[in-house]
Structure formats: structure tokens, C-alpha cells
């Protein structure tokens, strides 16, 4: 954990830097941090390699079932299957491949979810109707089951979220979408063209890297009237707040009919594979936090974003107050 706290931020700064290894002290400047980011990555690889070795030793010593569901065990299982099925000359599912994937997951899954939650609290805490929306959220979250605790046909463990967790939480889903529309925690997605593409009079040649800028697309006035306004109801009832909105039936019957759902999870086969985990984390946090605490966003702070995940530059400062016990269900 300590290593992750120290190395992950250093690694992330390299994402938005000039890809050249500048000598010290220039490599300490964020724009030139590519070299120190690569060093952090190398050190982090060794940390994960050590974890892999320790986990293998534990499993071999009979400590911990090999099918415990932990991420390393899942990779070991996939590695075994892959090695059995692998054809001559195919890519090697070796430990370096596992390490790269573990680092990708840690890096893709940490700030994205926490920044989304932070932005949700910021927006709920500052919107005129924020308190009303929070009360509706509490009601919605208290009524629907968070986890699938029934028997599974395929025999996998109950208690894990079913796919599409948010279908039970339409208002929470709308708040998450709206927070990400206003402050996307992933600002762009990238693709490489597989053939020449003609777009809007421009030729984009095969093999070019293109990016979809989620920051800009989500603020287009033609798509979202009053684009800077926090209004989760855009994604309920065809975009309007109805007098009948209540926790019992927020947005019943319809998602947005007019305002497109922002592609916060990306597209196609690279669509975020961690999205159900992120949704579960957000449901659990909101379900635990909202009924127990009132909070006030401290006035006068800046909400402008910072790299890499667009969280408030100076964090979010709030004054927390525990709700009176009678108010806590
Ligand atoms: C609110 C939280 C999150 C948001 C908004 C988010 C968003 C995204 C987006 C937009 C992409 C790019 C998709 C594309 O290229 O089409 C992505 C990719 C990815 N995400 Fe997430 N993500 C979140 C949480 C997580 C979590 C919790 C994990 C894992 C624990 C995760 C793992 C990944 C990985 C591994 C990729 C790369 C997929 C690939 O390139 O094939 N994400 N995410």
C-alpha cells in the first residue's frame, strides 16, 4: 500500500509529459516527468513481481485456496489455461504480462472512481436542489438491494454485483453520468484507424491515432441545454425534472429521450472493464455516507481540475456533521 501511494502518482505524471528522458533536475518538472515516471514504473513492476512470488509461495504452501477470487489468483488461472491452449509462436502470457495488467488496473481504477465520487459530492453540495436530490438518493439506495444475494445458475458466489447494477438505481446512475459529463475523470479515449476514414471533409489516414475528447463533447450546448448546469434529470424522463419525481419512481419509464448519455465508460471492446466494480464502489459509498452525514462544501474554494483524473486541484473541502441518530435508518 505504501509503495502504491508513493509510486502510482509518480507513474501517472508521465502520462501527460513530453516522452523524453530529461536529466535531473528538469525531470522533476511535471511536463518533463517522463523519465521519473518510467523509473517509478520499473520500481512498481518489482513490487508487483514480489507480490506474485509471495502469493505463489503461499498457494504452494496450501495457505489460501488458489480459487480465492483475488486478482493474482485469477491471473494465475488464466495463465495456466492460456499455456495449455497456446499455439506455437503465440504471445507469451508470462509474469511480465500479469504485472503490466495489474499496474494498468491499479492505475485505471483508483483515481477514476474516487474523482467521480468527489465531483458528485461537490455538485450535490453546491446545487440549489442538491439537498432534495440527496434525500431522493437516500430513499432509492435504501429500497433496492445492492448485491445479488440469490442463487446463481452458474454456481458463482452470491453477494457480488450482478451486471447492470445501476438499473436498480436510476437516480444514482443519472447523478454519476451528470458528474462525469461536467467533470470527466477520463478526458479522452484513443483509437488507431484501421483504414482511411473520411470525416467532415478531412481524410484520416490508416494507422493514425485519434482521440475523442470527452471533456468538450459533453459540454456541447447543441446536445445539452444549459451545459454547465448540474441537472441529473437530463437523463431521466426525457430530460426534465418532473413534480412527480420521487425516490420511489425517479425517471420511471424512460431514460433521456433527448440528451445523449455521455460515453463515460468508453466504447466497444475497449469499454471500461472495471465499470461494474466502479458502480458497486459508488453505490456502497453513497449508501453508507449519505444517510449518516450532512456535509457543507466550504465556500470560496476552487473546483478547477487537475491531471490526471480531473479531480479538484486543491481537493474538496467539506464540513462533515454526523446526522442525529434518529435520522439514521
Ligand atoms: C468511475 C470510474 C471509472 C471510469 C469513469 C472509467 C472510464 C474508463 C474509460 C473512458 C476507459 C476507456 C475506454 C475506451 O477506450 O473505450 C476505461 C478503460 C479502462 N478502465 Fe476504467 N473507468 C473507471 C473505473 C475503472 C476501474 C474501477 C477499473 C479496474 C479496477 C478500470 C479499469 C480499466 C481498464 C483496465 C481500462 C482499459 C481497457 C482497454 O483498453 O481495453 N476502470 N475506463
TrEMBL record:
PROSITE patterns: CYTOCHROME_P450. Its cofactor is heme. Its EC number is 1.14.13.-. It holds the Pfam family p450. The keyword Repeat does not apply. Residues 241-262 are annotated as: Disordered. InterPro entries: Cyt_P450, Cyt_P450_CS, Cyt_P450_E_grp-I, Cyt_P450_sf. GO terms for molecular function: heme binding; iron ion binding; monooxygenase activity; oxidoreductase activity, acting on paired donors, with incorporation or reduction of molecular oxygen. It comes from the Eukaryota. Gene3D superfamilies: Cytochrome P450. Keywords: Heme, Iron, Metal-binding, Monooxygenase, Oxidoreductase. Heme binds at residue 272. It is an enzyme of class 1 (oxidoreductase). The keyword Iron applies. GO terms for biological process: sterol metabolic process. Belongs to the cytochrome P450 family. This is Cytochrome P450. It comes from Ectocarpus siliculosus (Brown alga).
Amino acid at each position: 500500500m505504501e509503495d502504491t501511494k508513493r509510486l502510482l502518482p509518480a507513474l501517472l505524471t508521465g502520462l501527460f509529459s513530453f516522452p523524453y528522458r530529461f536529466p535531473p533536475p528538469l525531470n522533476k518538472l511535471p511536463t518533463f516527468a517522463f523519465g521519473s515516471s518510467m523509473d517509478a514504473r520499473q520500481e512498481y513492476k518489482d513490487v508487483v513481481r514480489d507480490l506474485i512470488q509471495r502469493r505463489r509461495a503461499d498457494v504452494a504452501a496450501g495457505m489460501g485456496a488458489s480459487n480465492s477470487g483475488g486478482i493474482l489468483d485469477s491471473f494465475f488461472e488464466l495463465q495456466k489455461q492460456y499455456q495449455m491452449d497456446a499455439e506455437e509462436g503465440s504471445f507469451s502470457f508470462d509474469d511480465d504480462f500479469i504485472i503490466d495488467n495489474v499496474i494498468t488496473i491499479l492505475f485505471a481504477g483508483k483515481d477514476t472512481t474516487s474523482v467521480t465520487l468527489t465531483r458528485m459530492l461537490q455538485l450535490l453540495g453546491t446545487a440549489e436542489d442538491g439537498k432534495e436530490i440527496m434525500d431522493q438518493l437516500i430513499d432509492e439506495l435504501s429500497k433496492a438491494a445492492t448485491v445479488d444475494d440469490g442463487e446463481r445458475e452458474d454456481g458463482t458466489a452470491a453477494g457480488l454485483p450482478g451486471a447492470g447494477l445501476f438499473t436498480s438505481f436510476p437516480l444514482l446512475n443519472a447523478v454519476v453520468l451528470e458528474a462525469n459529463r461536467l467533470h470527466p475523470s477520463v478526458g479522452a479515449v484513443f483509437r488507431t484507424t484501421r483504414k482511411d476514414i473520411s470525416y467532415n471533409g478531412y481524410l484520416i489516414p490508416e494507422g493514425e491515432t485519434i482521440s475523442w475528447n470527452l471533456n468538450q463533447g459533453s459540454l456541447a450546448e447543441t446536445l445539452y441545454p444549459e451545459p454547465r448546469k448540474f441537472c441529473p434529470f437530463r437523463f431521466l424522463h426525457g430530460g426534465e425534472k418532473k413534480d412527480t419525481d420521487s425516490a420511489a419512481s425517479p425517471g420511471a419509464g424512460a431514460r433521456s429521450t433527448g440528451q445523449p448519455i455521455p460515453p463515460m465508460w468508453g466504447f466497444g471492446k475497449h469499454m471500461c472493464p472495471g465499470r461494474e466494480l466502479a458502480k458497486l464502489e459508488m453505490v456502497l459509498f453513497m449508501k453508507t455516507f449519505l444517510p449518516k452525514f450532512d456535509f457543507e462544501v466550504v465556500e470560496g474554494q476552487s473546483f478547477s481540475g487537475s491531471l490526471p483524473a480531473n479531480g479538484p486541484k486543491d481537493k474538496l473541502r467539506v464540513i462533515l456533521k454526523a446526522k442525529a441518530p434518529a435520522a439514521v435508518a
